Amino acid sequence: MNAAMRRRLGAAGWRVGTVAEFLHLTPEEEALVDMRIALTDSLRRVRRKGRMSQTELARRLKSSQSRVAKIEAGDPGVTLDLLIQALLVAGASRSQVARAIAGKRRRDAA
Amino acid sequence: MNAAMRRRLGAAGWRVGTVAEFLHLTPEEEALVDMRIALTDSLRRVRRKGRMSQTELARRLKSSQSRVAKIEAGDPGVTLDLLIQALLVAGASRSQVARAIAGKRRRDAA
DNA sequence: ACATCGTATGTCGCATCGGACATAGCGTCA
DNA sequence: TGACGCTATGTCCGATGCGACATACGATGT
Hints:
Two copies of one chain form a homodimer. By secondary structure, chain A is mostly helical.
C-alpha cells in the first residue's frame, strides 16, 4: 500500500459506508480499502463474540494490545497479513475471512 | 509473518498439494499458508487468462517484473497486501479473491 | 547462431511495518 | 473518590518488505 494513499485515507472520517470514490482511487484501490474495512469490522465482531479483550487477543497473537487496537481502528500502518492472522487467531474460519473479503453483508453473523 | 516460519517454509519443496502439517504450524498458520498458495495460483491463472506477461502486470502494478515473479513463486517475502493487489490489478474480482481465500477449488475458472 | 521474449533469482538501499512501552480516556463498581 | 478493566493514541527502534537493477535460462522464430 502506498504512503500517499494512506495519507488520503487517514484524512477523511471513514468508517461510515462505502465512501471511497470521491478521493481518486482506482477501482482496485477502492476494492482493497473496502476489503480492509470489512475485515477490521469482522475482527471486532469475532473477537467480541469470543468474549476476548484486545489484551487477550494480543496475547494469543503474540503481539500487543496497542497493535490490536490499531488493527481494529483501521490504522493504515497495518498489513493484511497481520489483519487476517488476527482474524484467524480470534477464531474466524477461513470461509468467514472469505466472506468478509467478498463484501457480503453478514447473514450468519459470526 | 514470522521469520522463523518463513525459514521453515522456504525449506521444503512446497507447491504440491496441501502439505502443511508435518512442520509444526498452528492451525492458523496453516490456514494462512494455504491461503497464500491459493492466491498465488489464482494470480498466475488470472494473469495468463488476461494474456499478460509478468512485465506487463508489473507495469500496471507499478512494480517490477522480478517482484511479480517472486509473488507467483510464493516467495516468503511478499505480503498479502501486494499479492491481493496484484490479483485485483490482474483483473480478478473481489469475489474471485474471496473464493481463493475460501479455498474452494475453481468452478467458473476465471 | 543470434535475437527476442517471458520468467527466475540474487542483491542492495530505503521505506515501512511490528512489538513494546507509556499514557490517557472512559465506564463500572465499591 | 479511587481502583480497575478495556480501549485508544503516540513514539521508538529493530526487522523486513519493496522497487530497481543485473543477470541467467529456456523457448521460439529467423
